[in-house]
Design brief:
The chain has 142 residues and is mostly helical. The chain is built from seven helices and two strands; from the N terminus they run ααααααββα. The longest helix is centred in the middle third of the chain and has 16 residues, at 54-69.
Length: 142
C-alpha cells in the first residue's frame, strides 16, 4: 500500500495545474484586507436602542471609520476631514439627497454634529451619555 501512495504522489492532476495557472495570470497581487475597530457597545447598545436604517448605519460607520480608525489630525477632538457630498454619496452608493437626509437623522440622534458643510464631529462612543460614562471629553473642544 505504501508503494502505491509513493508512485501516485509523483503524478499531479492536470486539472489542478490548469486552474492554478489561470488564476495566477488573471488575478492581481493579493491585497490584505484592512479592519477598523468599532466598539462593542455599538452592536450591544446603539443598534439595540435605536432603530437605524441600513443607510444610517452605513453613513455613521463611514464617518466613524474616517474619524477614529484612520489617521486624522483632529482625532482627539472627534472631527473628521472635509468630505465632498458628491464623492461621499458615490462612495456609499446612495444619492446626495439620501445622504443629506441620513446626516440630518444622525444629528437628531446625537451621534454626529456638523462642524461645517462636509465636516462632522463624531462621538467616539456614539452618544453623549456613553462618552461621559467612558471618560471621552474631546480635550474640552466643545
Amino acid at each position: 500500500m505504501g508503494d502505491i501512495r509513493k508512485i501516485l504522489s509523483q503524478f499531479h492532476s492536470k486539472k489542478r495545474d490548469n486552474i492554478n495557472s489561470t488564476q495566477k495570470s488573471v488575478t492581481e497581487p493579493s491585497i490584505q484586507p484592512s479592519s477598523s475597530e468599532i466598539p462593542d457597545l455599538f452592536f450591544d447598545d446603539i443598534l439595540a436602542k435605536n432603530k437605524l436604517t441600513r443607510t444610517e448605519i452605513t453613513v455613521l460607520i463611514f464617518l466613524y471609520r474616517q474619524v477614529w480608525s484612520r489617521p486624522n489630525q483632529y482625532k482627539s477632538h472627534g472631527i473628521g476631514p472635509l468630505n465632498s457630498y458628491i464623492e461621499m454619496a458615490n462612495y456609499l452608493h446612495i444619492t446626495t439627497e439620501d445622504l443629506s437626509h441620513n446626516l440630518r437623522s444622525l444629528e437628531n440622534y446625537g451621534f454626529i454634529e456638523t462642524v461645517r458643510s462636509g465636516q462632522y464631529f463624531v462621538r467616539k462612543y456614539f452618544t453623549e451619555v456613553l462618552d461621559t460614562k467612558y471618560g471621552q471629553d474631546y480635550d474640552q473642544f466643545f
